[in-house]
Amino acid sequence: MAQERRVKKLQSGQVGKGVTTAEEATSNIEHLPQVQEDMASQEDMPGNRRGGGRGRKKLKKLRQKVKAAEAALEAAQRQVAETPAYPMARPAQMRRRHWGLVASFVLMVLAPLAAAVFYLWAVAEDQYISTAGFTVRSQESSGATDLLGGLANFAGNTTASDSDILYEFIQSQEMVESVDKTVSLRPHYSQHWPDDWVFSLWPDATLEQMIWYWQRIVGISYDSGSGLIEVQAAAFDPETAQAITRAIVSVSQTRINALNEQAREDAMRYAREDLDEALEQLKGAREALTQFRTRTRIVDPAADIQGRMGVMNNLQQQLAAALIEYDLLRGTVGEGDPRLKKAQQHIDVIRERIDIERQTFASTNTDTGAVGEDYPSLISEFERLTVDLQYAEETYRAALTALEVARDEATRQSRYLATYIKPTQAQESEYPNRPMLAGLVGLFLLLTWSILALIYYSIRDRS
Description:
Layout: H1 2-16, H2 22-43, H3 46-49, H4 53-82, H5 96-123, E1 128-138, H6 144-147, H7 159-170, H8 173-183, H9 185-189, H10 207-217, E2 218-223, E3 228-235, H11 238-296, H12 301-332, H13 338-362, H14 375-410, E4 415-421, H15 434-462
Antiparallel strand pairs: 1-3, 1-4, 2-3
């Protein structure tokens, strides 16, 4: 029974499933001789030698199983022999490319960083900061301006635009030249050249190079909403830094005064031009009205009409009285009485005069006593000339008042520079910021080296 189990094990391990690993094949090879010995001992048993049929069948089956196991073992051995053998991985070792990568890291990162750190802490000179803050203010005016309802504010509010102009002016060439005349920028900032070549200015720098260096030593912070301007100047000693900020404030004040003076001159010029134009318009209106009166010989058509209407009313009254008198005479005297004829003549003359007077209102015939033009046209023209004269007078008054207000504004400074932070003097250096600069240099070198290493390995893998 033990032999049968071993043979079945060989068959189940080799024939049924096949050899999967070299260890299983070796184990089956070790079990096969023992199985053969068991079969030989089985044949030598007394029962088997006596030729029992049952024993011979078992032996026959065992021999068949052993042959099948041997065939499976041979196939497993061939399979193991054909399977390629992979060597075991050796311990990791530094190769040539690894040493090159380390060397590049030392040359491109560590060495430049060490040089930068040495320069910042051993060579770079200390710099001191002076701060000044100011803004452009506009003086609020009252009195005549309020009475005119803002008529004098034709120039508008220019405080914000003045701050914008001042912000650009501080960075301009004119500001650099003005401060250089006061502080002597080139000798101060070139005194440490060429030792501190990073933060110093070369002695033979041109004006354009001075403007470029000005952007490095002067920092400007500007809030367009509030109009506040803050200036920081860096120098190798606190006195020079403070002198630079003072010069910036002084030159800025001069610039604002110049802008203010120009604005006042413009306002006065515009006010005078408006006054001259209003005066010419007033003269023209008065001259047109004078020509109308000379041509028509009527000072006031309305008054002239009222006078003529008075004449008409008087004639109407006389006509009524003459009619009454005529009626009384006709009742007391005969038809041929000369007084009736005279009364009738008197009535006819009054009526004729009334007709003539009525014709003069709408007639252009001068024979009837008219002025050569109809009264409706005369009244219309007179009213138009009167309105033009009134408008010209009001315009002249407004222009005259605007000139007075502009002259009043010109007597005082309407815009000025308000300093809310006076130029400060530092007690200790703040720049250069050595830890931050060293960190930035190290980060930049590390990123550059990493990018170059990735590019190298990418090209190496593709090739």
